[in-house]
Amino acid sequence: MTDNPPPAPTPYTLADPVKFAQNMAAVFEQAAAIARSVAEHTEQAKKEVETQVTPMEQVSKTLGAVAQAYMSDPQKLMDAQMQLWNSYTHLWQSTWAKVLGQPAEPVAAPARNDKRFKDKDWQEVAVFDFLKQFYLISANWAQDLVKNAEGVDEHTKRKARFYVEQIANAISPSNFAITNPEVLRATIESNGANLIEGLKHLEEDMKAGDGRLRIKQTDMTAFEIGR
């Protein structure tokens, strides 16, 4: 009786767990050093936020106007919620069919010019495909909420669309190492060395900026002055 050969390693299998653990320790150490640097420049960071980041009360006020439009029409709000849950249900059914090897049409697909999901594993690996579609369903639904809000002036809608888009972009699964197949593969292949390198670049940028990062202002200026 011959032993069965061991399963072939996948792109998401650690080749050297010990080295990976050592590099993760270095990552935490590097992150702690950056945190200390930020803590030493709290006043500068506060001024940077005040001059370059849209005040949260303005975001809350704008999105609150959209929310109020739906609160005044409970049926429309319920219909929107049902639409979202139906999309989630279809996604779950589609994903389960894909896991079982059955053909399944995507419930949500990225725009052709969306470069965030070009890696093949966003389509071929069920878990990443699920994360991608769940995100797209949610982001598109939020944008539709703004678009279909009644009784909200067009200027407020434009600002709300911008805010929702920025929030959606920030929470995209492509932005996080554990949910981005391309970054996750690079992290595993390098045993985490890529994360150390990235943090080194971040620390160098902060040192060059005297403990702060320069954030490029957006073209929301036109909105803020009421154009």
Write the layout of secondary structure elements.
Layout: H1 17-39, H2 42-52, H3 56-71, H4 74-99, H5 121-124, H6 126-147, H7 154-170, H8 181-189, H9 193-208, H10 221-224
Helix pairs in contact: 1-9, 3-7, 4-6, 6-7
Q: Number of helical runs?
A: 10
- The best one-word shape is flat
Structural class: mainly alpha
- Give the helices and strands as they follow along the chain: HHHHHHHHHH
Q: How many β strands by DSSP?
A: 0
Low-confidence runs: 215-227
The average pLDDT is 83
**How big a fraction of the residues is strand?**
under 5%
Cα-to-Cα separation, first versus last residue: 79 Å
| Helicity range | 55-70%
Please describe the biggest sheet, giving its number of strands, its sense, and whether it closes into a barrel.
Answer: none
Radius of gyration, taken over Cα atoms and rounded to an integer in Å: 22 Å
Q: Could you walk me through the main structural features you see in this protein, from its secondary elements to its overall organization?
A:
- The protein has helices spanning 17-39, 42-52, 56-71, 74-99, 121-124, 126-147, 154-170, 181-189, 193-208, 221-224.
- With 227 residues, the protein is an all-alpha fold.
- It is flat.
- The protein starts with 16 loop residues before the first helix and ends with a helix.
- The model is unreliable at 215-227 (pLDDT under 50).
What is the gist of this entry?
The chain is mostly helical and 227 residues long.
